[in-house]
Amino acid sequence: MAGRRARTGRGWDASPPRTGDGTPGPRRGRRTTGDKSGSTAGLPDDETGSGTPSADATAGGRGAGPPRDEAEVAREICLRQLAARPRTRAELATALARRGISEEIADQVLDRYDEVGIIDDAAFARAWVTSRHAGRGLARRALANELRRRGVDGDTASEALGELDETTEAGTARALVERKLRTARGEPDAVFRRLVGMLARKGYPPGVAIRAVKEALAAQSAEAAEFAERLDADALIDAEGDAAGGPGD
């Protein structure tokens, strides 16, 4: 019996050992509040692994060791920008300047990206023209404005826009008008002017816009065809040309 009690006393359900004054001592394996030798109390999150690193630890800010290399920071900025969508060299240069990267370092990084083909303004312009014409129905005039705002030089933009010929542009204008006519309401005169205005905002010249709307109206209904027949397209084109401003988006 004595042996059995001794074995029981050493098991997982044993009472805690008593100290010299008869009070129970702390259980083994449990740290007390004051024992910090094996705890994570007071350690920063990036050392305990229980949280995210501080901004200084990730960005090389003040107090986090030596500053990061400026060229490395510039490359990371560019790659984040390019991950969202293709960018022109001018767009990337603007992003670097906004983040405080010196012009010298920015030029070095961007020159290298030019060499290896990570940035290519000519390819950007071609893709932009194809995408925006097919997706939004934009004409060459509106596309030229968009490319200029993104820093594409005139020669590169002209080369890309040259792939969009007049026949394709006229066909797109006609398709846009026909799609709008399915839900258009009102008198033919009001519909005509709304549709010409829509094409003008997308950058279509007056001649292309007026002819596209007139042809689409003529094919829509007898009433619309009668109205279209009375239209003097050449006179309207001259009048629109005199009053035309820059195309809208």
TrEMBL record:
Annotated stretches, region: Disordered: 1-70
Main subcellular location: cytoplasm
Location in the cell: Cytoplasm
Domain RecX third three-helical as annotated: residue spans: 172-212
InterPro entries xrefs: RecX_HTH_1st, RecX_HTH_2nd, RecX_HTH_3rd, Regulatory_RecX, WH-like_DNA-bd_sf
Feature: compositional bias, Low complexity: 16-26
Organism, scientific name: Micromonospora craniellae
Family (UniProt): Belongs to the RecX family.
Task of the protein: Modulates RecA activity.
Every RecX second three-helical domain range: 120-161
Domain RecX first three-helical residues, every copy: 74-112
Entry keyword annotation includes Flavoprotein: no
UniProt key word 4Fe-4S: no
A biological process from GO: regulation of DNA repair
Gene3D superfamilies: Winged helix-like DNA-binding domain superfamily/Winged helix DNA-binding domain
Superkingdom, natural source: Bacteria
Gene name per UniProt: recX
GO cellular component, one term: cytoplasm
Name of protein: Regulatory protein RecX
Keywords: Cytoplasm
